[in-house]
Design a protein that fits this description.
Distance between the termini: 49 Å
CATH class: Mainly Alpha
Largest sheet: 2 strands, antiparallel
Number of domains: 1
Radius of gyration: 18 Å
CATH architecture: Orthogonal Bundle
Shape: extended
Number of helices: 3
CATH topology: Helicase, Ruva Protein, domain 3
Order of helices and strands: EHHEH
Mean pLDDT: 85
Length: 88
Amino acid sequence: SGIREIKTPLSAREVIQVPPVVVDGIGEPIGKFTMHENWKPSEDFVMRARTWGHALPADGYKKSDLIEFITYWMAEGNVMQHVQWEQK
């Protein structure tokens, strides 16, 4: 024996995009999905954040913060529920 199979190391992991499922009449996507450039927190995000122990200003968040958040998580390729994204 002594013969070992040589495998080429992966230089980057494959990213599979999972689109959100949108249902009319429901204010947020259903099921798990990867982050996408048009993602937005729910309309009651500021209230939800308070229940999770994060006091946000009344106007919520800065657009630049949202863009930074989306850019980071798009690169990560994680798949989560809408509320899980909000908890990040």
